[in-house]
Amino acid sequence: MHRFSLGLLYLTFAFVLLGPPVAHAQATRTWVSGVGDDVNPCSRTAPCKTFAGAISKTAAGGEINCLDPGGYGTVTITKSISILCSGTLGSVLASATNGININDSASGSPGTVVVYLEGLDIEGAGTTPGLSGIRFTSGASLHVKNVTIRDFTTSPAHGISFAPTASAKLIVENTTISNTGTGAAGAAIVVNPGSGAAAIAMISNSHLHRGTFGVAGDSSGGAAGINIVVRDTVANGFTNTAFLTTGNNIGMLVNGSAATASGTGLVANGGSTIRVGSSVIVGNGTSVSGNVLSFWDNRINGNNVDAIPGPVPGGSH
Predict the structure, then answer these.
(1) What per-residue confidence (pLDDT) applies to 156?
(2) What domains are there in the chain, each with its CATH number?
């Protein structure tokens, strides 16, 4: 009897001193390092090793920062998050898979996630190259800045695949995408919303090199509408088309940009329209094809076929 009472007293004393087990709250800011460990709390002094390890310990709306250059692995994002590594280099090697997936469809509020990606190098590495560098299927918006994506050549093989199931926005700035696509498919950037969804995309100050298509707007999935603005961007060396729209309800504006050394510079198929101004279309098999309209301040020369687009109604001549 006395032994039982004494043991109970010790347990009670320990519980008062130590308290019950504490669940650690997710942090607003977490850190990764090439010498980190995913068992850590992902603090600056005890960083994690991978983006996947850090994201589970980062609160919605928070951010993950890179302490030093490192390979931080592929990751699936299901909540609002920023992965910012501009001060150093955050590398992602994706063999036979997507580099970064954004999909909030299983969350409590699908179509609300906002994702920022900055300062990343995403490589489709290995004997079996990656599928897409970044794949977005559900969320509110995706912002990509100062990112390099390359060598995604396994079907569907896109640099950025923006295929939201509900209306969403894409912003791409100062990004370089190279060697994407396989055979007759794949693009550096493809905007292809699902049935009834609309998409708005802004692509600026970027370099797109080598592959099947450069920037492609595609409404074959039943999109309600696609609007793409391309500004101060070079699309070079694509076997099919540098700038492409195919299907109904698509408008693309290409301004201050270049379409060079590709099969065709600009192609607008179906009920789509591309408007082009202050741009260079040089060294392609054919300059333009389909419903491409010009503001008459472009440089079109040196293509095997120098097709001249019609004027934009009411545009400056």
Answers:
(1) 78
(2) 65-311 (2.160.20)
The pLDDT value recorded for residue 315 is 61
Classify the C-alpha dihedral 121-170-225-236 as positive or negative.
Answer: negative
In the block, residue with structure tokens 């390099």: 148
Q: Are the C-beta atoms of 115 and 139 separated by less than 8 Å?
A: yes
Return all residues near 239 (Cβ < 8 A) that are at least 6 apart. 181, 211, 212, 262, 263
Distance of CA 202 to the CA centre of its chain: 12
What is the mean pLDDT, run by run of 10 residues, along the chain of 317 residues? 44 42 73 97 97 97 97 97 94 94 90 97 85 96 98 90 97 97 89 97 98 96 96 97 96 98 97 97 98 96 96 73
Residue 207, strand partner residues: 176, 234
Contacts of 232 (CB under 8 A, 6+ apart): 204, 205, 255, 256, 257
Q: What pLDDT is recorded for position 56?
A: 95
pLDDT of residue 126: 66
* CA 75 centroid distance within chain: 13
Question: What is the number of other CB atoms lying within 10 angstroms of the CB of residue 293?
Answer: 18
Q: What is the 3-state secondary structure (H, E, C) of the chain?
A: CHHHHHHHHHHHHHHHHHCCCCCCCCEEEEEECCCCCCCCCCCCCCCECCHHHHHCCEEEEEEEEECCCEECCCEEECCCEEEECCCCCEEEECCCCCCEEEECCCCCCCCCCEEEEECEEEECCCCCCCCEEEEEEECCEEEEECCEEEEECCCCCEEEEECCCCCEEEEEECCEEEEECECCECEEEEECCCCCCEEEEEEECCEEEEEEEEEEEECCCCCCEEEEEEECCEEEEEEEEEEEEECCCEEEEEECCEEECCCEEEEEECCCEEEEECCEEECCCEEEEECEEECCCCEEECCCECCCCEECCCCCC
- The region, left, alpha or beta by phi > 0 then psi within -120 to 50, assigned to residue 56 is alpha
